[in-house]
Amino acid sequence: MDIKLDPSRDDLPLMANTSHILVKHYVLDLDVDFESQIIEGTIVLFFESGNKFKKQSSSTEETYPSESNEACKFRTPEPCHIPVTNTRTVSSKMGYNDFVIRGKGEKDTSGKDGNHDNQEQASGISSSKYCCDTGDHGSEDFLLVLDCCDLSVLKVEEVDVAAVPGIENFTRSPKLRNQIVRELVALPADRWREQLDYYARCSQAPGCGELLFDIDTWSLQIRKTGAQTATDFPHAIRIRYTTKPQGRSVTWTSDQSGRPCVYTMGSPINNRALFPCQEPPVAMSTWQATVRAAASFVVLMSGENSAKPTQLREGYSSWHYYVTMPMPASTFTIAVGSWTETKPEICSSNDLVTERSFSPFEADFRYVGVCGHMEYPCRFQNASATTQEIIPHRVFAPVCLKGACQETLLPLIPPCLSAAHSVLGTHPFSRLDVLIVPANFPSLGMARPNKEKTGHVSDSGSSVIKHGLNPEKVFMQVHYLKGYFLLRFLAKRLGDDTYFSFLRKFVHTFHGQLILSQDFLQMLLESIPEERRLELSVENIFRDWLETSGIPQPLQRERLAGAECGLARQVSAEVAKWVRVNRRPRKRKRKETEVLEKLLPDQLVLLLEHLLEQKTMNPRTLQRLERTYHLSEQDAEVRHRWCELVVKHKYTKAYRNVERFLQEDQAMGIYLYGELMVSEDARQQQLARRCFELSREQMDRPSAEVVAEMLF
User: Fold this and answer.
1) DSSP output for 505-518
2) From the CB of residue 147, how many other CB atoms can be counted at a distance below 10 Å?
3) Which of 15, 154, 371, 507 could form a disulfide bond with 219, CB atoms 3.0-4.6 angstroms apart?
4) Which residues sit opposite 212 in a β-bridge?
5) In angstroms, rounded to a whole number, what is the distance separating the alpha carbons of residues 213 and 224?
6) In sequence order, what are the beta bridge partners of 340?
7) Under a CB-based contact definition with an 8 Å cutoff, are residues 220 and 145 in contact?
8) Entry pTM
9) SS3 state of residue 578
10) Which run of H or of E encompasses 687?
11) Contact present, 341 and 406 (Cβ < 8 Å)
């Protein structure tokens, strides 16, 4: 792994040594400060180490039986080459007795006078000595490696879970801290409430010894002197830290009403600049979080509960969310802002019955099925949940959009949820929050990498995502488009009934699990009778749709066939009319001879794409086009094509539409910046630079970098 990675351009390293130890649960306790644009607090991590990593320890206190002697044998893992650029070594000066568990609303002031960037002192831990020491081998101490970036780590300590009052009623070994955690993470799913309660209580236990740590560009490395194996390493640790205003996991910005907000936005580095974590998707974990903010703000998170604020000291509120379904750390989301909840004006009693919330283990278990995922309170095992077409949902928006959401968005959610249930079956989550995000949300970069494309995976579990930090990658839409048309192609080959039946079966079979494209395609092909496969295979699909550039042959044939459908023929007829209108000489006429048809939004996109192929279009035609279809009032896809026409033909009267698009649809506007600059028209280039200067501070970093390269 290159230790001199350019964090703005090159491959993205996944550093966590997940092959040796796994985080099973996170407990976050955070304060959101809009004035300084930081999130600060603590995170407690609860670990599980597998038998295959156990090494006979000199300490008998923390051993547990293995299944066989083979499980205790280890080979030396290959070096994982942890980057050591700008490494800073720290042993926090604060004793563990100085750690104070804050009460609700009590502001933390520790660490304010130093140690924020871990530069105060060197603890003697050598990066060269320990950088490869992430396994259970030799006489060196075990090194825990967490994915971490753009964080100031102030203190790391072991948590004394044995000091929790009443813990002796829960465990067989009340004095063995690691054994307590092992029993806690292994609790059966029907004790999930008790498990969350003990996680919370353990997270507030005092520290019992500071741990040495290093922090570099991409990782946080932690060790305990004398703990030579993952089994011996503390299974509950607390990390006190703060984020940085320039951290790349969250965006500090303003909503459409001009009020401050912050949210996770699907960053290429995921959440490692929000909290230290294990980034590889194999690290499936649960979490619970308490977040405090000024009382004027609403805190939304991807939790299973519909949290309500708890009033703290004057002017501050606390919000608590939790998740019982293990998921990758990248799925953790948070949004804090002055959102307002949009509610329907009239709520019928039928809606209340339909949207009734079911707890993970409420009553009925007639629906019997074997789940393939790790144990958790699964809705697929709950007969009441499996028949719930519409799950409880809330809609939040900036104040200025409340009316539009109430009128347009709210009525759409119940039928969409019902349709999803009819096609895919049981909703995997018990509720849904919908948030109208600011215009700078980078909506084109949400895909996660395929594990097989992360490069070589070392024995420790570390790897790299090729080109994961290239800001231009998120705007390359070929993989999305090919994937969409591949699914359409397969649906046509199978027929809708067979295809949707398969999707329902697929969701039921693999819910709660990590799955690869190969597994999806293999299961799909197995559901097709052999005589209908027509030489389809996973290998052929990958060759034609993934490994071959250009439009796949099946899609070209479908495109030709699609040109014959009724809606497409209607568009073709309208294109011909507009071509005639554009060629007509300018002279006064009492009445236009062409009768133009109303078109659906998808038809408008197709119409504008065809008109983009015309070499010239005069301003009179463009003006009539805009007025006929009210193009400036259409959805973003239609307006994007319209702006392309405006730019191509230098229709200055509609430049206001281009400016609006660049301001309000920033993610899609990236392409328009390129077209404005390529035109080499001074007025258009000036427009692009002016819009960029107005939006630059609000844009997400990758988008701003890409646009800046185009403009300057």
Assistant:
1) HHHHHHTTS---HH
2) 27
3) 15
4) 223
5) 9
6) 397
7) yes
8) 0.78
9) helix
10) helix 682-695
11) no
